[in-house]
Amino acid sequence: MSIQIRTIEAEDREQVINLLVNRWTSTEQLLDGEMVDASKLPGYLALDEGRLVGMITLIKRDLEWEILTLDSLQRWGGVGTLLLDAAVDAARQSDIGRIMVRTSNDNLDAFRFYQRRGFRLEKVVQGVIDEERKLKPEIPVTGLHGIPLRDEVIFGRDITGSRS
User: Coil, strand or helix: which one is 143?
Assistant: First the structure.
């Protein structure tokens, strides 16, 4: 397996939309009460011999970048780490000192993934998913592992220093 990471380009739009719909049910994600079309965001694709195996989308702000989506279609194979590393490297090159991500309280795999890669748990926003469900009723009540889906957990990483 030889994974190549490259920037999302305009001609990738159909693949990007398909991945988002298949993995997230929609290209639109709720963020702070507003819909964000992840298919229009910058990011990176992971390709294995030309076949899409992962993607990361980013919201680029002046002082920090936020990961909106990160998907690996080949779990446990390093694809997510390669995509995350590409985003961190690009943020550093753009003089961004921080990268953050939000996940739902049921996503224990994300908790493990991000903490192993230098992210720290910063905040739990209680009840935000309950509120988002009012705007997006397709959000399930029960998430992974039978855990009630209620809260948003924010992880952040200072990327000004070493590569850890």
Answer: coil
Task: Quickly list H helices, the chain.
Answer: 13-24, 79-93, 108-116, 128-135
Distance CA 124, CA 106 (A): 12
Q: How many angstroms separate the CA atoms of 112 and 56, rounded?
A: 18
Quick: pLDDT tens for 61-83: 999 999 999 999 877 779 999 99
Measure CA 105 to chain center: 15
Q: Strand, helix or coil at 139? A: coil
pTM of the model: 0.91
Q: What is the CA radius of gyration of the chain?
A: 15
Q: What ranges make up the beta strands (E) of the chain?
A: 3-7, 28-31, 34-37, 43-48, 51-60, 65-72, 98-104, 120-125, 152-158
Q: Minimal CA–CA distance to 90: which of 58, 48, 114?
A: 58
Residue 3, token pair as written in the block: 């994974």
Length of the chain: 164
Residue 113 in tokens: 């993934």
